[in-house]
Design brief:
The complex is a heterodimer of chains A (366) and B (847). Chain A is α+β, with helices and mostly antiparallel strands and 366 residues long. Chain A folds into 2 domains: 10-106; 125-360, Bira Bifunctional Protein, Domain 2 (BirA Bifunctional Protein, domain 2, 2-Layer Sandwich). Chain A has 13 helices and 9 strands. Chain A has helices at residues 18-34, 38-49, 54-61, 67-106, 125-139, 153-156, 167-170, 192-201, 241-256, 313-318, 335-343, 349-352, 356-359, and strands spanning 143-144, 150-152, 184-186, 205-214, 226-236, 262-269, 272-281, 302-311, 327-334. In chain A, the strands form 2 sheets. Chain A has a 7-stranded mixed beta sheet with strand order 1-4-5-9-8-7-6, with helices on both faces. Chain A has a two-stranded antiparallel ribbon with strand order 2-3. In chain A, a hairpin with a 2-residue loop joins strand 6 and strand 7. In chain A, helix 1 runs antiparallel to helix 2 (38-49) and helix 2 runs antiparallel to helix 4 (67-106). The longest helix of chain A is centred in the first third of the chain and has 40 residues, at 67-106. Chain A is rod-shaped and about 130 Å long. The two termini of chain A are 86 Å apart. With 847 residues, chain B is of the alpha+beta class. The radius of gyration of chain B is 41 Å and the shape is elongated. In chain B, helix 13 (511-525) packs across helix 19 (735-742). Chain B has a 7-stranded mixed beta sheet, with helices on both faces. Classes of the chains: A alpha+beta (366), B alpha+beta (847). The structure holds zinc ion. Zinc ion binds at residues 282, 284-285, 294, 296-297, 301 of chain A.
């Protein structure tokens, strides 16, 4: 505290004594350094840099000094206060960093075991595979057609050159709609969409048809009464069996990848002539002979994928296409079978039962 | 078709070291797919044994066993006689028998070891035919001298019997496609094997046949109603063999071949006819001559005629059935080409037989076989086409065998009524195979292949055209493509190159196809798993779902031949079958489960029949239209079902059970994904809870209000009846409606960058007023400054009247061109409240 200017010797003003200022400064710096939290630093700031702090009080005394002493004392006090402000600023920044770091540490969560809180569902591998097959066909410039599962007998059989009395028609294990003369069946293959597409769109035509099909088989490890096929039909000028083979090879490549080649062997279907069964090289043994026969292919090195051939003239005639001008090929394969090959599904029933744990093995893209 | 390799070797030259596997691979190349390989299942020491001592030992159980000491030479390693217990009694000391020693295996994986039985150690087994898988035609064990005849003379004890008894023989079973009837014969298979490998083929039909005479047994072909203009029988050969002893045993070589080919030996006459059928593909029938009284007449059935067939069934015949009849007594002898009757059956006492070898029309036989549900070895062949040129040869082969084995005398008279129509040649372009297959076959190669398969080629004027007369056994070769297939398959399908065609390019997936994929992904992304269920249901299910009796969804399409009588109908909604998948998951321990299915459902049209106008020609437009319109409406649907938690509980806190609001939100998300606004209105509809169900409606592009479907919680009784967890929620949507409503191109509006102003409004309304009603009223009253509206709280309780509820809405306002002033916002808000008050009686709380 200073009194009025009775005593006129500046040296006599204790607060401005260099030693005292030095002492104040040292005390302030020590307190600043010792502040261990932002709260403490706040108190230190009030004590050593506040209005009632020794240095602030000393500063006030300067005005009472004779002009000759003012400059020096002002400089001394100013430097000391600047040093304190500087130290406060530094300590403040330091403590803020420390606080921020501490908060981050305190807020840490263990996120190493978070199960799905709204777990993702999954698509079914059969439609996913059918979509993949369709995409390969679309990539080749084909379009995707569809047709009804409950189908007219004429479309399912006659339009495809299955004569009423031909054994092939009896071999289809057909579900018939009641009454028997309704002329309706559950389609036994996706092939009726061939006839529908040709009638509706005419030639040239490149369509693939994924869809649900039905046969009167009981469900077991390799059969199901309700299954899916992927059909392909191309009708254009100059198409040959070589184009059929090329298309199948591309589809096999798109679905199964490198090194899975196809082979054709003679077969019979009423709606194609010439006809062929298409086999794929066995996924497991790749056709390499082994000591014990491969269980997947029975040691033949090939597994059956589907049927195919050149579109029978009677199919073209039944759909109003001129067989002298247009030639075409068609093929069809089982989607479930493709999934079983591709994803190693051993039992058909797993594809049928709808157990969500089965789906969960697959991602959303297959 | 089962092909005994030994038999095949008689008609085509097989390599010395041929295996069944090799033959199967060679046959596959020409289109005969391997079904199975059959070999004997007998392995290990099976040797000749001589019975040295035989002691009959009666047992307490009343049986008598034979305790035998059998000389098996050095085969048992010691040369000492082998002690064996045997239950059979058809042999004596000194007989040569077949002994399987310990270490051997009999069919069925039955391993032989020394074992204690009836007080002896029996070290092996004396085998019967049945035990060796050689047939069960004989009681007791095999006595080799009887079984092998002269062949047994040189046998020595200890000698290996596997080869002697033919147990090293193999049978290749192939699948014969319906166009290749001729491959239901060894003759046909041998020819195909020759085509595949080039091995020399010896045609078993290359047999001297005496010319037809006029004095033979009278046969009249009297088909007055041919089907499709084709005579039911165009050739009938009748031969008589007299003085037969049909009690004689069928020789072992023949019965072995029959067994290997899958036919049981029955009696000499039947075995001979079966043998010839297997050899040449021509079904034969043997009648007891003594039971015939007049000429054989082949005609169609008359009304009410019946026939008791050999399978002991009395059949009422149809006017389309072709019959073989006795013209003397006017009785029916056989369903032509299908099965004979009992009245003229050959028996052991028969001495004179009439051998029928006839060619029946494929269509006639097929229909009769189908009509009477009677598929036989004969009908199977006739349906697929039998070589009409082999008729007389087959009869001759049967006569020769009957004479040789049955000791009969062949009647020199030969009846051969022959109405065969000349086969039509095919005019064939020699360039067609190359154009069709994409392989550069030369004309020479094409000619060569066609000749090889038995065609006769006659040159036409133009150099690249020939007239091709297919062989008699190939009725399937009727046009260019069928001949192309022959060229391609004989030349080898493996020569066909791989060429990818290049269409002009498509338009990609359709809107509907893409949308269905999006819907599936959107649902899977929200926790629902896609499943596929069978579409078959029964009426019971409609009851369980609580559908009213007059509900249109009960009108389901019925199957004539369902897999199960419990489920003969096609589902009319997916929710009729989808809950089963949920239930299965729950029963397997997955308690929190949400599943969906996307598929078509079947809505029958009025009882309209679809005409079936036949093959090979385009029906006229009217017929096509009738066919199309008779096909039921089959819209694409989506159904979803959920139970348990949708938000899982865990270390982060409590979860939340899937509830009715979730299922509505999922259904809405599907519509949103399609870009279609949807409106929910309360609905009462089975199978939902009457107070927890909404109908979802969309606005279609033509401005119509369309029903998308329903969502909510299942009726508690329905959940109970279906065995589902309580509070199971479900939805069913018509995706076709969504496809239509969303099939438009969105025109984007600019987005305002001016600030938004929000204003919360609390309104009390009677509890009976629906949230959506208040919401629409606010929406309507607020005008175009309103950007969005959200119902964020619903309150019922002490603060308000009991019959009321309080709804809190947050209104967000924004203008396109300016920052809104407070007065503007308040005015819009007040207008919204006023509209709600006017339409719903809403009162602003705290106002
Ligand atoms: Zn393999």
């Amino acid at each position: 505290m200073s009194g009025p200017n009775k005593n006129y010797d500046p040296v006599e003003v204790a607060a401005l004594d260099p030693a005292v200022i030095e002492q104040d400064l040292t005390a302030a710096l020590a307190a600043i350094a010792a502040a261990s939290s932002l709260e403490e630093l706040k108190s230190v700031r009030i004590a050593h840099a506040g209005e009632r702090s020794p240095l602030a009080l000393a500063n006030r005394e300067i005005g009472a000094l004779p002009p000759s002493a003012k400059a020096e004392a002002g400089k001394r006090v100013g430097q000391a206060r600047a040093a304190v402000t500087q130290a406060l600023k530094g300590r403040q920044a330091q403590l803020e960093v420390e606080r921020d770091e501490r908060i981050l540490v305190e807020e840490a969560l263990d996120l190493t075991a978070v199960p799905g809180r709204r777990p993702l569902g999954r698509r079914h591998p059969v439609p996913l595979t059918a979509e993949r097959m369709a995409d390969v066909m679309v990539g080749m410039g084909w379009e995707i057609a569809e047709g009804p599962g409950v189908e007219a007998e004429w479309f399912n059989f006659d339009a495809l050159n299955f004569d009423t009395d031909h054994p092939a028609r009896q071999m289809q294990d057909t579900f018939f709609v009641d009454p028997a003369d309704a002329g309706l069946v559950l389609r036994t293959h996706t092939s009726p969409v061939q006839a529908r597409s040709l009638l509706e769109r005419g030639a040239p035509l490149y369509v693939a048809v994924p869809g649900k099909t039905f046969r009167t088989d009981e469900l077991d490890a390799t059969h199901t009464p309700v299954f899916h096929q992927m059909e392909g039909l191309a009708v254009d000028e100059g198409l040959t069996m070589a184009h059929l083979k090329g298309t199948l090879d591309r589809l096999a490549y798109g679905l199964f990848g490198e090194g899975i080649t196809s082979r054709l062997r003679p077969a019979y279907f009423p709606f194609t002539e010439p006809s062929a069964e298409m086999d794929l090289v066995c996924f497991v043994c790749r056709g390499e002979p082994a000591a014990t026969p491969c269980r997947t292919c029975g040691g033949t090195g090939w597994i059956e994928w589907g049927g195919c051939g050149m579109v029978n003239h009677n199919v073209l005639r039944a759909t109003g296409i001129d067989p002298e001008r247009y030639q075409g090929f068609a093929f069809g394969m089982g989607v479930e079978r493709s999934v079983m090959f591709r994803n190693g599904v051993a039992d058909m029933r797993e594809l049928i039962e709808g157990d969500v744990r089965f789906n969960a093995q697959f991602g959303m893209e297959i | 078709m089962r092909v005994p390799v030994e038999w095949l070797g008689e008609y085509v030259a097989l390599p010395e070291d041929v295996t069944g596997e090799r033959i199967a691979a060679d046959l596959v190349r020409v289109g005969l797919e391997e079904e199975a390989l059959h070999g004997s299942e007998v392995t290990g020491p099976l040797v000749v044994g001589r019975v040295l001592e035989l002691t009959k030992e009666p047992q307490r159980n009343g049986k008598t066993i034979s305790w035998c000491r059998v000389d098996v030479g050095a085969a048992n390693g010691t040369g000492e006689p082998q002690g064996i217990v045997c239950g059979a009694h058809n042999f004596v000391e000194g007989d040569l028998v077949a002994v399987i020693l310990p270490g051997g295996v009999l069919p069925g994986g039955f391993e032989i070891s020394a074992r204690k039985t009836y007080g002896h150690v029996s070290a092996g087994m004396i085998c019967s035919s049945r035990e060796l898988g050689l047939g069960d035609d004989h009681e007791g064990i095999i006595v080799l001298t009887e079984h092998l005849g002269e062949q047994a003379v040189h046998l020595e004890p200890g000698q290996d019997l596997i080869g002697v008894l033919g147990l090293d023989r193999e049978v290749v079973e192939v699948n014969v496609t319906p166009d290749r009837g001729y491959c239901f014969s060894l003759r046909g298979i041998a020819r195909e094997y020759s085509h595949s490998t080039g091995a020399a083929f010896t045609d078993p039909a290359d047999l001297p046949v005496p010319p037809a005479t006029t004095g033979g047994y009278a046969v009249r072909l009297a088909d007055e109603s041919p089907l499709s203009g084709v005579e039911g029988c165009d050739r009938y050969v009748a031969r008589v063999v007299q003085g037969l002893d049909l009690s004689r045993l069928t020789p072992r070589w023949m019965s072995t071949r029959l067994l290997e080919a899958g036919m049981r030996p029955i009696s000499l006459a039947v075995d001979v006819t079966n043998y010839v059928m297997l050899a040449l593909g021509q079904p034969l029938h043997a009648f007891d001559l003594a039971r015939l009284s007049g000429p054989v007449v082949v005609r169609r059935a008359r009304p009410a005629e019946t026939l008791r067939t050999l399978d002991d069934v009395t059949r009422t015949l149809d006017a389309e059935d072709l019959l073989v009849t006795d013209g003397g007594s006017d009785t029916v002898l056989a369903l032509a080409g299908v099965m004979g009757g009992e009245s003229s059956e050959v028996s052991a006492g028969t001495t004179d037989v009439l051998v029928e070898s006839a060619h029946f029309d494929a269509r006639t036989v097929a229909r009769t076989s189908r009509r009477h549900r009677l598929s036989t070895e004969a009908s199977k062949r006739f349906e697929r086409g039998v070589d009409p040129d082999v008729t007389a040869v087959a009869a001759q082969l049967a006569v020769d065998l009957l004479v040789e084995i049955g000791g009969g005398t062949a009647d020199p008279e030969v009846t051969d009524v022959d109405h065969r129509v000349a086969r039509a040649p095919v005019v064939f372009d020699l360039d067609l195979p190359a154009r069709y297959v994409g392989v550069d076959y030369t004309h020479e190669r094409v000619r060569e292949v066609l000749t090889e398969i038995g065609c006769s080629l006659t040159d036409q004027d133009a150099s690249d055209r020939v007239s091709v007369l297919p062989p008699s056994w190939r009725p399937d070769l009727t046009d260019g493509p069928t001949l192309v297939e022959e060229v391609a398959r004989i030349d080898g399908y493996d020569r066909i190159p791989s060429v990818v065609p290049s269409p002009t390019g498509g338009r990609g997936l359709t809107h509907a196809q893409r949308l269905r994929r999006v819907v599936a992904s959107v649902l899977a992304g929200q926790g629902l798993s896609e499943v596929l269920t069978y579409p078959f249901v029964g009426q019971d299910r409609f009851d369980e779902l609580g559908l009213p009796l007059d509900d249109e969804r009960r009108r389901a399409l019925a199957l004539a031949n369902p897999l199960s009588d419990e489920a003969p109908l096609m589902r009319t909604e997916l929710l009729q079958t989808l809950p089963e998948a949920l239930r299965r998951n729950v029963s397997r321990g997955t308690r929190d489960v949400a599943v969906f299915e996307i598929d078509t459902v079947t809505r029958p049209v009025d009882d309209r029949a679809a005409p079936v106008p036949g093959v090979g020609a385009r029906p006229d437009d009217a017929t096509l239209a009738t066919i199309r319109s008779a096909v039921p409406h089959q819209p694409w649907h989506l159904a979803l079902v959920a139970a348990g938690e949708s938000d899982r509980s865990g270390w982060w806190g409590a979860g939340r059970a899937a509830d009715a609001a979730d299922v509505v939100a999922w259904a809405r998300s599907v519509a949103e994904a399609a870009g279609v606004p949807v409106r929910a209105v309360p609905a009462e509809r089975a199978p939902w809870h009457p107070g927890r169900c909404v109908a979802l409606r969309v606005v279609t592009p033509d401005g119509e209000d369309g029903l998308l479907g329903h969502a909510g919680e299942l009726h508690p009784k329905v959940a109970q009846r279906l065995g589902l967890p309580e509070r199971t929620v479900a939805a069913e949507l018509d995706l076709d409606v969504l496809v239509t409503a969303s099939d438009r191109r969105v025109q984007a509006s600019p987005i305002s960058t001016h600030p938004a102003a929000t204003s919360d409004v609390a309104l009390t309304v009677p509890r009976s007023v629906h949230h959506s009603t208040v919401e629409s009223a606010l929406l309507e009253g607020a005008g175009e400054l309103l950007e969005s509206i959200l119902l964020f709280d619903v309150y019922r309780g002490d603060q308000i009247e009991e019959h009321e509820k309080s709804l809190a809405f947050r209104l967000t306002f924004r203008a396109h061109d300016r920052t809104l002033r407070t007065e503007e916002v308040n005015a819009a808000r007040d207008a919204a409240i006023a509209r709600a008050a006017a339409l719903t009686g809403a009162v602003q709380r705290g106002a």
